[in-house]
Specification:
about 325 residues, two-stranded antiparallel ribbon, 8 strands
Length: about 325
């Protein structure tokens, strides 16, 4: 089965690309890595104006959603431009609040997320002890077992392969809810997070491939562009095929989530592992074909290379995703 975006969705993607191209996201990511969130928050505000965070928030809480397909479109654009911050975690937190069944908590928190005024993070301790950008986010939601709490702060920021991903352990917080409703809402939020991460990884892979193609047409060896070598062509073709194969899986998973299909979780897992591996393969190709210059932090390409591996493992490692697919 083939999945195509409609004209409105394609225009949304183009508008986000135009917006983010004008934002100098590499500079924002470099500032983010040092703890200077100003440029990144400026990008965040513009994304909010474009409706990105409202895509997962219901209309009664000032959102447009839930719209999983449009969310996937948006996060592919965010990946293409290496936007820093807890983007996935914010929309996942919104999904959790929407499904929790607590009208007061939703009314208090979701309008701020939709408008971009509130940057949230989410930690499911079953997947790991860290929250992304917990030192910045307000609120930080933590789900441990069937208990949902709102953390009051965070510990020291941990080193990360991706300078746009700052990890820390959330501090103890106030219990917001407990019971089966928390477990169910956390499961749905994890699916939303996995879908958004898959789309983001797909966008990262697309940019890595595009920049590598541009580079091999300019770099020469033995008097000719290295892009004319068969070995280079084959490597790039394999990378393209992996990304092309991942794209319909991401869109199909978004459609399944939108329809509430029983197999949506399995489809999301398949999309996540495929897009994550494709992006990681694109990073390896980019690093190899750029040669020694590919290892330098000064090159903007490094910002995308260093995103690929963390995104591959975030919100569902390849092994965990494959196990979920095989479980049916």
């Amino acid at each position: 089965m083939r999945f195509f975006l409609d004209a409105e969705q394609r225009e949304f993607a183009r508008s986000l690309d135009g917006l983010l191209t004008s934002c100098d996201t590499p500079a924002a990511t470099r500032s983010w890595a040092t703890g200077d969130h100003g440029p990144g928050r400026a990008v965040w505000a513009r994304l909010a104006e474009a409706g990105v965070f409202a895509l997962v928030v219901p209309e009664k809480y000032d959102g447009f959603g839930p719209l999983p397909v449009e969310l996937a479109v948006a996060f592919e654009a965010l990946g293409r431009h290496a936007v820093p911050g807890p983007l996935v975690e914010t929309v996942a937190a919104a999904a959790l609040l929407d499904r929790l069944g607590d009208e007061r908590a939703a009314a208090d928190r979701l309008p701020g997320i939709a408008s971009g005024k509130s940057v949230a993070s989410l930690c499911l301790t079953s997947l790991g002890p860290y929250a992304l950008d917990a030192d910045l986010a307000d609120p930080v939601f933590v789900v441990e077992g069937d208990i949902l709490s709102v953390a009051a702060g965070s510990g020291p920021v941990q080193p990360s392969a991706d300078p746009g991903r700052r990890l820390s352990r959330p501090a103890a917080g106030t219990v917001l809810a407990r019971g089966p409703a928390v477990t169910a809402a956390a499961g749905y939020a994890a699916d939303v997070a996995a879908l958004a991460t898959a789309a983001q990884a797909l966008g990262v892979g697309r940019t890595l491939l595009a920049r590598t193609v541009a580079y091999v047409t300019q770099r020469t060896q033995f008097g000719v562009a290295i892009g004319s070598f068969q070995a280079v062509k084959h490597r790039l073709a394999d990378t393209l095929l992996a990304l092309e194969f991942a794209e319909p899986l991401v869109h199909g998973a978004a459609l399944a989530l939108a329809a509430g299909d029983d197999g949506a979780g399995r489809d999301i897992a398949a999309a996540k592992v495929t897009a994550g591996e494709a992006a990681y393969g694109a990073a390896r190709t980019a690093l190899q074909l750029h040669g020694a210059v590919g290892y330098t932090d000064e090159l903007d390409l490094s910002l995308w290379i260093r995103k690929a591996r963390p995104l591959r493992d975030a919100w569902g490692t390849p092994a965990a995703c494959r196990a979920r697919v095989l479980a049916g």
